[in-house]
Amino acid sequence: MEHVFDKLKAEEIKELEGLIKKYLDFLSEIKTERECVEQFKEDLLKKGFQEKARDKGFFTYRNKFLACWRRGKRPLQEGLKLIISHIDTPRLDLKLHPLFEDQDLAFLKTHYYGGIKKYHWVAMPLALHGVVVKKDGSIINLVLGEREDEPLFTICDLLPHLGRKKQEEKRLAEAIPAENLNILIGGIPIEKSGKGKKEEKERIKKRILKLFEEKYGISEEDFFSAEIFAVPAGRARLVGLDSAFVGGYGQDDRICAFTSFQALLSIEKPLYTTLVLFMDREEIGSEGNTSAKSRIFESLVYELMKAEELSPTPDVFFEIMSKTKALSADVTAGIDPNYLEVHDKLNDAKLGYGVVISRYTGHGGKYMANEAHAEYISYLRSLFEKEGVVYQVASMGKVDEGGGGTVSKYFASYGMDVVDIGPPLLSMHSPFEIAHKGDLYMTYRAFKAFLKG
């Protein structure tokens, strides 16, 4: 294997740095799936894509799923070039009745989403992102805690002086109970009312509700139909004295969403029809109607078939699927030298050595896995080497240490060839994930080569 920076030419390094600058802005501003769909939709319109257009089109669903495509020179019956990434990330969701007061402090209750380590989320700056949909259907977009001139939020931790029995003697997974992930939101009481100004209850909570109403037009009942997430506050940053890395929240899997989107925009006349999907709910098993388990992909392909004046029948659909080549664009674990005991150094991915082809996922005896056929891996090897893409072929950790799954198995069920591909990360699923700049660039190059055909 060769390090990416041993292969790059001066003009490629310039292109890399331009891509990193765009990515830092994207990662800093886009922290929910709705924000991702809205940003990509705006960029597509600027590039001449039109909703449900035949040649350069896009389609959104429930503001959490996006598909975009370019029509290819070859007929649709010869298959698609398909890339799928997911745009949801681990986070803390506000509960349906979130606001409460205790000991003259106001808090918001949360329910964590996806695979988090709960201790990561205490004693750190948090922002609130999301939407509130009122009874009349009007939508209020909410972003609080990102600007330097506004307050942010946090979850308080227990001081070490009192935490020996409560935390330190417990298993790590039990030290921070989920019901203690309450966000500190207020501490000043509302003015007393009435002639005698008698003692009132929950004056802190009442003042927070008044602020929500005055500033944003949100009542307590509006939380019933709200989707508000607590996410790490602040910008993504370059990491390391040599600026070798990008650090930030949500790189699993928005690093693949960003690079696949940029790759699509860079391809003007693909050989095969290219279709790039951005899906929701992967972090909780792809449940729901905006996920890979939904039938939305089938409906989308049938619409493409009708646009090509093909008979929208199952036999034509499965003919297209059997000739489709797909990439499940998702990250993998990079080898961390501080935790070598869980890695297989011969078979796991190294940061800085390019995009990773993960031939299989799953856990244990390859349960719940998609495993790509050898012929498909050979095709990708040949393509990447021809296009100068630095890549590595790797798995994720020692066999009995765990594992993970992606959306690839759901798309493999259609009969297409599909494999997982993406950059390696350190600190995956933490509030500050780490990616190597060279791997991000080669992920973009790999997606571009794949879509170009």
From TrEMBL:
Record keywords, A-Z: Aminopeptidase, Hydrolase, Metal-binding, Metalloprotease, Protease, Zinc
GO BP field: proteolysis
Pfam family for this entry, one: Peptidase_M18
Names of the cofactor(s): Zn(2+)
Annotated family: Belongs to the peptidase M18 family.
Record-linked NCBIfam families: PRK02256.1 (NF002600)
Protein name: M18 family aminopeptidase
